[in-house]
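Q: Given only this backbone (152 positions), what sequence would you predict?
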């Protein structure tokens, strides 16, 4: 049976990011929530927080390489499935580098306890407070265990 890659639901993406402490499971670097980077770029145009086409000369290197993405542990192209257990957080740089490699060729690190204890949120908290997207806001606040009225 041929497996096909599916779009990852926002709720699953947020669950994975928080589960993995907003840290790339390959390189152990903290990652950034790309909608937050887009919001920052809209607030401060030309500062290099975000570019729709990820142009190297238009973005600050740290943001370009470290925005959060989801990778399949066992790639769909190699028989992997679309499930929370087969998803992990990867920075954009590592996700592109490992692409469809066989899982035995990937070194996956355990969840970064320091980032988890510090409650690093990939800058998702500032996005939730902006009110730009109610769906993202509710998902983020739910995972942060924050009760929020209309003032958030």
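A: Predicted residues:
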């Amino acid at each position: 049976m041929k497996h096909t890659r599916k779009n990852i639901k926002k709720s699953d993406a947020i669950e994975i990011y928080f589960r993995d402490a907003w840290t790339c499971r390959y390189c152990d670097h903290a990652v950034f929530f790309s909608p937050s980077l887009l919001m920052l770029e809209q607030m401060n145009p030309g500062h290099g927080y975000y570019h729709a086409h990820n142009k190297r000369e238009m973005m600050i290197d740290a943001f370009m390489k470290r925005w959060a993405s989801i990778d399949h542990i066992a790639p769909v192209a190699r028989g992997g499935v679309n499930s929370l257990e087969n998803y992990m957080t990867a920075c954009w740089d590592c996700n592109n580098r490992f692409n469809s490699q066989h899982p035995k060729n990937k070194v996956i690190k355990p969840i970064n306890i320091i980032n988890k204890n510090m409650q690093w949120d990939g800058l998702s908290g500032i996005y939730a407070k902006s009110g730009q997207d109610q769906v993202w806001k509710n998902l983020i606040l739910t995972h942060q265990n924050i009760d929020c009225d209309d003032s958030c």
